[in-house]
Amino acid sequence: MLTGWRNISWTLSLLASRRLSICKSSTFSKALISSPSSIVPLPPSPTQTFSFFTSRLASSSTHCSAPMELQEVLHVLEQLAPLSLAESWDNVGLLVEPSKSRQIKTIMLTNDLTNGVMEEAETLSCDLIISYHPPLFRPIKRLVQKDWKQRLTIRAVEAGIAVFSPHTSWDSMKGGVNDWLVGGLGSGQVSVLSQALGSASHSHKLEFMVRSSEELDAVLEELKTCDGGAGLQSSSSRQDSSSIHVSITCSDSALTPSVQTLLRHNTPSQSLSILKLEKPPLPGYGQGRLSVLDHPVTVSTAVQKMKSHLGLVNLRLALGAGRTLESSVCTAAVCAGSGASVLSGVKADLFITGEMSHHEVLDAVAKGTSVILSDHSNSERGFLAVFKERLAVRLPDAVKVVLSKADRDPLEVV
């Protein structure tokens, strides 16, 4: 029996090795395609050995070099940066979905979807374009050739290319665009300027009194019909011998019918109070960052560091009132893109963002804060290379992730 089982073990080993030879997972290949003694230790029981091989075969299949379906890629993107982190005004997620199912083999990352980027994507036979800025932002009533963004949308549809935009979800996420941007000045104690909030299934708390357990049961039974009872949670405690304090939480959709139900009962209607529940904060997530630098630098050094970090030859600098190039920078506040609204009112030695209006810069300078401007997309584009690596390691080897070479900020110094 033992000899027969060893033959089965070696057969499974061979199958595993052949399976892995199709894949490009070098770690698994090196682990399994080695000496026989290292891959087939004598098992204490046939069941354990079979489990060992089947688990390795199943695990290797997840690393197999095979394309992915669009929804599978979208799932990975959601894991890396949940779209719920985006600002309420933003237009994020899948913006263009081809009518015919198409396996994803090539993904292009770009800061903006322009005509040049689209031509590049078509040349490379891209299946998915991840455009940091959403090419479709405002509602449209028609798709015609007069508008350049609509032309690009039509081309994407005709070419069967999906288009996805993460925008402010990347700004908000921990380790996202803003963390990358502030990291250009070196290490520091980093905090979020505009805190992101988590989702909450229950938005209101209703508190009221009832006189008896029988009345409580009757009221709760009626409340269960509100919103199908799915959004209702309750707790109760006896205040004294004549009253019971009741607290329920409910969703927005269940609020009105719940209140209407309680108003039909004498005691609850007289004691009813309604509280609005706040959404819980998400530490480390949100818009903008403030860094208290571990090693303060001069304004001049900060400029050089940011040039290197952003890969730029030129930056625009406005010195704060009373500041010089040799003034010390101990605190820096950053916001990728157009950051004036997020940076407004923040106390820091230095602001770093893509663009601010003339008067917004004057306001900051008057308060003694120096300002570095890189132009809008230059404060964001460098993060694409970081995200490319994060995405690539979560995809099969058959899915190629590339950075657009045609993507660039429309403004340049001449």
Question: What does it look like?
Answer:
The structure is a single chain. This protein is α/β, with parallel strands linked by helices. Helix content is 38%, strand content 24%. The protein contains 16 helices and 15 strands. It has helices at residues 2-22, 26-32, 36-39, 46-62, 70-80, 115-123, 148-159, 168-172, 177-182, 213-223, 252-263, 266-271, 299-310, 340-343, 358-366, 383-392; strands at 93-96, 106-110, 128-131, 162-165, 188-197, 204-210, 233-240, 243-250, 273-276, 281-298, 316-318, 328-338, 350-355, 370-373, 400-403. The strands form three sheets. It has a six-stranded mixed β-sheet. Strands 1-4-3-2-15 form a five-stranded mixed β-sheet. Strand 13, helix 15 and strand 14 (370-373) form a beta-alpha-beta unit. Mean pLDDT is 85; it is low at 1-62.
Short description:
The protein has 16 helices and 15 strands. It has 414 residues and is α/β, with parallel strands linked by helices. 31% of the residues are buried.
What descriptive keywords fit this protein?
414 residues; alpha/beta; 6-stranded mixed beta sheet; 5-stranded mixed beta sheet; 16 helices; 24% strand
Strand content: 15-25%
Extract low-pLDDT stretches.
Answer: 1-62
Describe the biggest sheet?
6 strands, mixed
Helix content: 25-40%
- Walk across the major sheet and give the strand order: 5-10-12-13-14-11
The span between the termini is: 82 Å
Shape: globular
